[in-house]
Prior knowledge:
The chain is mainly alpha-helical. It has ten helices and two strands.
Amino acid sequence: MTALDTTPLVAPGRxxxxxxxxxxxxxTRYELRSYFRAPDAVFFAFLFPTLIFVIFAAAFSASxxxxxxxxxxxxxxxxxxxxxxxxxxxxxxxxxxxxAIDIAGERSDGTLQRLGGTPLPVTAYLLGKVGTVVVTxxxxxxxxxxxxxxxxxVALPGTVALWGRFAWIFAASVxxxxxxxxxxxxxxxxxxxxxxxxxxxxxxLQFISGVYFRFAELPGWLQTVAGIFPLKxxxxxxxxxxxxxxxxxxxxxxxxxxxxxxxVIAAWTLAGLGIALTTFRWVRxxx
Length: 287
């Protein structure tokens, strides 16, 4: 008497369906190749924060220090002061701007419609976009910090606590940027108009959120308007990481107010997710 064979039968030659994670990783590789083959995306999103930093740092390197005491000590250089805002700006460029323009373009040129006719799940497509944003945001950050530290002598955070603070602000901001990018992708009516719709919005936010100007020097009403939007809070959080603690007194509330920053970032993340989940389609309904 032989033992019963309990090995499950598998249809010969039938391919195994890839997992969702595997599909997402493959899609990420495809998206990254496409991203770095597009010169305009590389210049205006990936390299832009570093190029602006170099211009600002070179232009104002001989202008003394910011926040020095009456005796001339205790301030930080212009490159050190502008670095946090450009770190924050880079996150939104990698997420919001890239995704909103890219997805709108793919919807307009029929790419999404063709993908909708394939077995590729929407989740795998979005995972590819998320992976691309994470990789490009981290690479952009490493490049910006390396240039700031090695070429302009900007000191990086010196404690584990500060790096931990940086990690949660960066991670939360990337998640928020992905959600807002997917949500805003439905705003442009065509791929051709996507850049004209998305870029000005982010450009205005950069000017009023302490990226190009010192936030404390903006009019009070403009600071209040900026406080509605997330970039101001991401930039403020990054200033709490890269600037000395005493610089908190010039913020709108006199503190870094990281609790409010976390709440605002979370609120915009939920808003972006809500819009993305209810509006994302392979094809626009109004076409």
